[in-house]
Predict the structure.
Amino acid sequence: MAEDNIKNKESPILLGVVPARGGSKGIKNKNLRKVSNNPLIYYTIKDALSYKKIYKTIVTTDSLEIAEDAKKYGAEVPFIRQKD
């Protein structure tokens, strides 16, 4: 698929990767904090999904809660990382 996308410049060619650590050192669970009634991660996923050059948006996280929200908003979560 990637080779076909490179040949056709109008096809999506980028993979969107959103790193979302559950145990943030500054603000705990900041990706789940509500901003205008939505969790912070919602806005990142929404923007990535709207970008036409991105063919897939995945979230890499160590938090089951973040993974659930990410899936709910349309991102893929292929695995849960080990906590740091």
Remarks:
- The chain has one domain: 2-72.
- Helices lie at 2-7, 40-50, 64-72.
- Strands lie at 14-20, 34-35, 38-39, 54-61.
- The chain is about 30% helix and 25% strand.
